[in-house]
Amino acid sequence: MDQKEKSSKSRAGILALAFREFAEKGYDRASLNALCAANGLPKGLLYYYFKDKDALYLACLEECFSCIAAYLQQHLPPPPLQPEAYFDLRLQFFRAHPYHQQLFCQAVVHPPRHLAARIRQCKKPLDEWDGQVLAAILSGRTLAAGHTLDSAVRQLRLFEDYLNASFALAGSGFPSAEEQDRLCREALRTMLYGLIARG
Hints:
Tetracycline Repressor, domain 2, disordered N terminus
């Protein structure tokens, strides 16, 4: 194993440990001292790869957003894509990757104030791709009166934010995969088809 490969593995290992630390405790409660002590990680090695807590946290978020995008792109069904299928795919990812769900929701709903702008920048590629997919889902469909394609995409993006916020703000923490699935399907049906039947 050459030096470059060793370096990559060391950085990846630190990132994996930090990912769990931030996901379980959130940015404010996460501690680099505790992370190093619990894992026998020399502080000098951590600071060799990451300047400070902010840099490590942002690196974890970049990894999180990148993994989500890669999974969705790899598993996206061929067109025509149904809205339910796309949101099902997102749920599948978060069920299989609970730390990603926790870190994602924390960053979206309660980002550290001083990092909010940088987090939005990290998330921008995922947001842009997500917007393109939602636009593709809705294009060619008959939209409700008063909606354009852009406004419908905005509404679906608000729906995503609502789901993220509802999980992150739950007093008892994140729901089980089954409860999350039920709540998401219920909310999506309401979002797409409304509460009141029209005659």
